[in-house]
Amino acid sequence: MTLPEPIAVTLFVTRILEQLGVVYFIGGSLASAVQGAARATVDADVVADLRPEHVAPFVHALGDAFYFDMDTIRTAVSTRGSFNLIHLKTMFKVDVFVNKGRPFDRAQLDRRVQQGLVADAGAEHSAYIASPEDTILAKLDWHRLGGEVSDRQWRDVIAVLKVQGARLDERYLATWAAQLGVEALLARAMAEAKRTQ
Prior knowledge:
alpha+beta; Beta Polymerase, domain 2; two-stranded antiparallel ribbon; globular
């Protein structure tokens, strides 16, 4: 099976993390495309519990397939920030966010799910992605932090709500929405998703 380039590039990075024993999950638009409505994305977001001892073997495994800045990676790992990797052949970007260790971050890592990234893909094309609930919550949080102007983030949330429907853990959603300060946004999104089913 020939994979779309964004999927292939993302899996290349997640395979390295798995080989190093680094707990991770894919979030952002790639997760919402798997769980909601598929759409083109210009990058992939990966949250990883990278430690200083992982940096050298991680960079070595990337080889010369990616552009990256070693100092930026080291700083991101020590400060629990972020860095990006640009795949030179495709120019597809993978943004890596180092797990900050906040309660919500830990909950997302605990609830990640292994799933195929393309339809009818076997286990070799699967990776850990954020749970649908966490995809919704994280996107609502980004939407709020961005001034609630991103139609793209909002459409992703609505799509995941529609597709996942009754399978969603509404108690979990409500609990974390209150802690993240997005309970009003969640209520509005759920109402819109039901109204436009």
